[in-house]
């Protein structure tokens, strides 16, 4: 056998040519002279092979990864070692150096390449949506039959901020471009449906209440027939608050706790504890605010009667003795609430 290129004999052959002629034009790796990397100047995500990836990386690491991703190594190379170096970074351009050592057909080779990595700052699609004020959901924070108090707004603001913080790890549209402060309540504009629903749930978890979603068609893409929807989610928190007196199914109950799904309270006639599922919120009637509760003094006691002073006119009023008040003494202060001209002792 002789090499068809150089004619030499007695050499290791690769097909019809000798190893020397083969290696003359052989390259262990291919790498483009110029590599472009797009980075979102807002959130630092990188565009890699057409996809935005979100994890934060320092600039050096971004350059190394871009080099790695663009190296194509020949199948003939064995025992390869690749060394990447950044020579210098000038502005957005990094001059890099790639060195490869490896074996090809038993011959050790060493090869170097120069490469320029250019970092282009752009804005990723979610960030450009955020900058343009795009939103998919409006959370309408409202109270039933009353105005929302400033401390409730403060608490709601915190819950919204906390939810957005947490969701930011999984949802790039977890942002609130606008809060509309209306007389009837706040409207929180939220980037995505997913995070909007989380915000609504978390508000309900804190305040109790009822959630209702109303999707609205905003526009329609004529070519695809696909609609752009937004969802308005109303979170209606109860009219009553802790210590208020409510009426539900003929029971008069003093509220002791409101959680995400139920109202807990004490029946003021029997002093027994009751739970009312919040899905019945529309059938719960607020009858007295906690500010209507009065304090008065016990003036006499018998096994069946407890006599108190009516704070309105200082007349003595006999009330039926209840087990919970047996340990009280004359002169002790008690709380009362007047409902329909009847006075109830409450704890
Ligand atoms: Zn040859
Ligand atoms: Zn971004």
UniProtKB/TrEMBL annotation:
This is NMD3 family protein. Residues 3-237 form the Nmd3 N-terminal domain. GO terms for molecular function: ribosomal large subunit binding. One of its GO terms (cellular component) is cytoplasm. It comes from Methanobrevibacter millerae.
